[in-house]
Amino acid sequence: MSLLDELKGLQQEAIELIEQSKTSKDLQDVKVKFLGKKGPISQLMKQMKDLPNEEKPQFGKEVNIARQNIQSQIDDRQVVIEEMELNAQLAAETIDITMPANVPTQGNIHPITKIVSEIEYVFIGLGYSIVEGREVESDYYNFEALNLPKTHPARDMQDSFYISEEVLLRTHTSPVQARTMEQYGGQGPVKIICPGKVYRRDADDATHSHQFNQIEGLVIDKNITMADLKGTLQYFAKRIFGEDREIRLRPSYFPFTEPSVEVDISCFKCGGQGCNVCKGTGWIEILGAGLVHPNVLEMGGFDPEVYSGFAFGMGPDRIAMLKYGIEDIRHLYTNDLRFNTQFSTLEDDGSES
Predict the structure, then answer these.
(1) Is 96 in a helix, a strand, or coil?
(2) Which of 144, 157, 221, 295 is the most exposed place for a label (fewest CB within 10 A)?
(3) Is residue 53 predicted with pLDDT exceeding 90?
(4) Whether the Cβ atoms of residue 212 and residue 321 lie closer than 8 Å to each other
(5) Band of the pLDDT at 194, cuts 50, 70, 90?
């Protein structure tokens, strides 16, 4: 067999293998086998030295043509294989849009967050500003500036988390009021509410927690009276608990207000007839309030002969428990999804905005 016949046989064999190739790897193997440096075509070129001189140019030309034909067949087949591989990939990765989508779980507003937002919304509408303060507070602002001397029982170490003798976790948000009064430099008016977490050394049970939320309000201006306080709290009660609610004020004692009152609302469940929520009394205690004590005004830089004011404090946790029928305050802080998802249907009244 001549070298030309052998070259034609190799070319035909290469073309057949190219047509049989199914993958890009198959094509690469054919290319290496026939066009590689150690392939049969390269070996034929080495035998060209044995040909007569007049046949060498023609044989070299035929070898180049064979190489070009094989490479051209490989390129054409590569296009076909790439299209086949793309179609196979698309088929394997096709998304069946007729199947139900995996809808991500949507969260909901925590009942405490919702209550705080509702309360803020009410008081912002009355012209109040929201002021937040530090949770680690000095003894002075937490107690002394609020007319709580060193010997007062509320300063007992069992009631507070002390970090040092002069630093503690705040037991109420009243220190925010004391600091704000100083910032006003004795010039009114002041209208603020102070939401935030507070800490007391209470044993955790169904109605007590060592950490809870509080919202306090403060108004200071000329000629502020108990009538202003009552009107404000009446409006607040109707907005939060319903237009049919009424309030009553009972005499009480707080060192930072004088006079002081406990504030009750008519039961929103029974309408004042008596039920398990109001313990048969028809009334529910919701907050404490009073006129700002002259000593507190003076320590805050205000002249008690010129200015007067009122203050109030409430627990959003307790309000949430009452409004949504929650029996154990610990449910509000355990992050149990079985509890939290119960409030996914709470109506959005726009107060969160």
Answers:
(1) coil
(2) 157
(3) no
(4) no
(5) very high
CA distance 324 to 318: 10
Residue-wise DSSP of 192-246: EEEEEEEE--PPPSSS--SEEEEEEEEEEETT--HHHHHHHHHHHHHHHH-TT--
HSE, CB side, 13 Å, CA atoms: give it for residue 318. Answer: 15
Q: In this structure, is the dihedral angle defined by the CA atoms of residues 197, 198, 201 and 207, taken in order, positive or negative?
A: negative
With the C-alpha atoms ordered 288, 292, 295, 300, is the resulting torsion angle positive or negative? positive
Q: Locate tokens 């049989």: which residue?
A: 20
* pLDDT, tens only, 106-115: 777 888 999 9
> Given CA atoms 120, 146, 148, 167 in this order, what sign does their dihedral have?
positive
- Residue 196 contacts residue 214 (beta carbons within 8 Å): yes
Number of helices followed by number of strands (H, E) in the chain: 11, 9
Phi, psi angles (nearest 5°) of residue 17 = -65, -35
DSSP letter for each residue of 65-91: HHHHHHHHHHHHHHHHHHHHHHHHHHH
Q: How far apart are CA 236 and CA 124, in angstroms?
A: 11
pLDDT confidence of residue 28 = 86
56-70, 174-188, 268-282 — which one is most confidently predicted on average? Answer: 174-188
Task: Return d(Cα 115, Cα 200) in angstroms, integer.
Answer: 21
Q: Tell whether the model's pLDDT for residue 353 goes beyond 60.
A: no
The 3-state secondary structure of 145-196, one letter per residue? HHCCCCCCHHHCHHHCCECCCCEEECCCCHHHHHHHHHHHCCCCCEEEEEEE
Is 245 a residue whose pLDDT tops 80? yes
The end-to-end CA distance of the chain, in Å, is 93
- Residue 178: both structure tokens together: 């004391």
- 175 and 142 Cβ atoms separated by less than 8 Å: yes
Taking the whole predicted model, whether its pTM rises above 0.85 is answered as no
Residues 272, 238: Cα–Cα separation, whole Å: 15
3-class secondary-structure state, position 258: strand
Residue 241's alpha-carbon distances to 101, 230, 234, 246, 306, in angstroms, are 40, 16, 10, 10, 35
